[in-house]
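From the shared-data thread, chain only:
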Amino acid sequence: MSMTLQTLTHIASGAQAASAFAQAAAGPEPANFWQPVAASTNAAAVDFMWDFINWICYFFFALVVALMVYFVIKYRHRAGTAFRTDYPHHNTPLELTWSILPTILVIAIFWFGFKGYLDVTTAPKNSFEIQVQAQKWAWNFKYPNGAQSDDLYVPANRPVRLVMRSTDVLHSLYIPDFRVKKDVVPGRYSTLWFQCDYPTGAPSEKGPKVDGHHLFCTEYCGTGHSNMNRKVYVLAEADFTQWLSDQSQWLDKIADDELYFKAGPKLFARCQQCHSLDGSAGIGPSWKGIVERVKAYPNVGEGKQYPTFEDYIRTSILVPGEYVVPGYANAMPTFKGQLNDRGIDAVIGFMKHLDEFDPKTGKYLKAAAK
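Structure, as tokens:
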């Protein structure tokens, strides 16, 4: 008997695994009129509540409008007919119906809604945890091995828990395809979790275009608010492990003499929302001619408050409020803990060789020539 039960259990487990594999192969639930693609395990419950409440609204809207039209026609006053005053003023069955039925519906909405709320706010114990820092105007995602990214990379078939904080103002992280959204409030931590079983793959310069899931900030946080629109890429477990390893060591793998043109453009992508390379106005000063400008700054330029140009740039990255360029607001966040010395060296080298890069895109021009 025990052997039979064990065999049946294995068969059931195999069937569940096959079902999960088939579901993943089939892909997520496609978008419809109201909702985008349902790509997370919690999306079905959220969409059910949405549809349930929506259809209740449709039904009663149609019922009320139909009865209103019927009553207007049936009980309209006709010329030559005396006004009637003997209409009924009380109907117990009708009054009980319109009291009890809405109460049952509201209780049902509360029950399913509260159960769904508990599910989407209580992360499983085996969740993969990612630290999220929001700031004007960027996201920084930090992984357990120290790797960091501007877009969010997550493993497939595993719950992911985001621990979020803001360094300045109120932000809000929203991933429509996963049906998750949470405010990111200064001075406190907030969390959300999701699980996506459908790998999207990671973007590559040489490979085909990869379309990740959209990630938005949904609290207006200033001039560069729209620059916080990013992507979520879901990787198969093996690919995600490899990506984590590569991402944590990518700067160390670049030779010192290649650092400025290999790492510089990638790091500038985090700065281009506020700084330009062609002299055009932005939230922060343009990097065009920055070496010469720093030397000319009164009282703070090279050899004054800062011994060298490199000292000024390093301080501006780590303690941006120490010197604010006249005409600009003190809006730059600190990158302490996000950029190490090697990363700062790459940015400084990039600034010193701006003539080797496209002023619009920041791409290395000599690479194209080769």
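Residues 43-74 form the longest helix (32 residues).
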